Amino acid sequence: MSSPDTQDQTQAPEQAQKPPHTLKSLFEAVHQERDELRVTVHSGVFHIDEAICLAMVKFLLDDYNDGATRFKYTLTMLVRRSRDPEVIQNSDIVIDVGGIYDPDLYRYDHHQANGAGRRPSKGDVEGTLYSAAGLFWKDFGVEFSKSVARRCTRIKLQGGKPFRKVARIVDSQLIEGICALDTGDVRLSSTGAKIQSISSAFSMLNPVEIGSDKIVDDQYDALQVGTKFVQQILIGAVKRAIDSVYHRPMLNKLLEKQNSTEEPRVLVLNNTSQAWRSVLTKNSGVLVVIQPAADANNPQHRNWNVLATSHKGVQLFDFPAEWYGVESGLDRITGVPGALYCHNTGFAAGAKTREGAIALVRLALIEWDKTDHGGGTSDGGGFEEVDDEDE
What we know:
Elements lengths: L22 H11 L2 E6 L6 H20 L8 E6 L3 H5 L3 E3 L5 E2 L4 E2 L23 H21 L8 H23 L14 H6 L11 H44 L7 E3 L7 H4 L8 E5 L11 E5 L1 E2 L2 E2 L14 H5 L4 E4 L5 E4 L2 H15 L23
């Protein structure tokens, strides 16, 4: 992403002939004519809305350039911040400005009188309005997700259907909320709590004019920083969604067998996937998940996490109260070799080994079953250690 802020720059060549509707095909068409892709967003205060779109274009452009070896020069991305109609007219992609939503022309604004549509309704609830980020993700989310899978993961998803699922997950978990805030289509909580959304946090990157005469330059520099930040969030969201789509079938198979195990309330996993958080329900009966901790610095000697499950924000299991807040030395309190800690709200504990994690759960279940919550009489006996990697 290069070039200074261009409030009123014009004189750009005409847009390349309309290609098939993918960003890669647009890049190829533009590259046949010139080595500069012109992207225009609005001037003034910037938002996460257009930054997400810019992050997607930049990531996919890097991917494209890696394979475009037949060209002498790589295709660069020129970002122009302007509301000037002539600048907008002579752009390859226009985002969040211009008053037009036309995917065939790569125009992605939602501020026109009739807006740019809503997501499908959910029952009697009207769908969330689209902002530029939502429109862009709707058209290019699958393309972006495939690129992330290829460049940033070792997971192989076959065909288009899994990536459509990935794109839907990212939309529901990240993009839709951004659209709601950007369009004012927000159902506010009645608690009065001030929750700092990713959108409002991102807006703090906008420079504050305190005796500075460089506000325009500062805005452009800040948007560059913000776009890099958002790109990493977007990549992370896609990777999590890929993880969920990839592991969900295996988890469903495990859960089909879970009731036949000696302790169906405990699910033992041999990977760090967090897909179980979206798969497990209150009716699944699983209270505790045991899995290795994600430790990139020490993958061969990972600790093991013991995690209470939850449903709609309500924790379904508690460790014994006397364990709460023990940051080290849980082995001395419990008598379990290698036991490490218990969170001060009782939703997580840890041990150095898988065996130690299982021993902690056995002790915790004995105490749990003595309470009104337990409803059982566990003697802490053995339970089947489900090896999901064998599936």
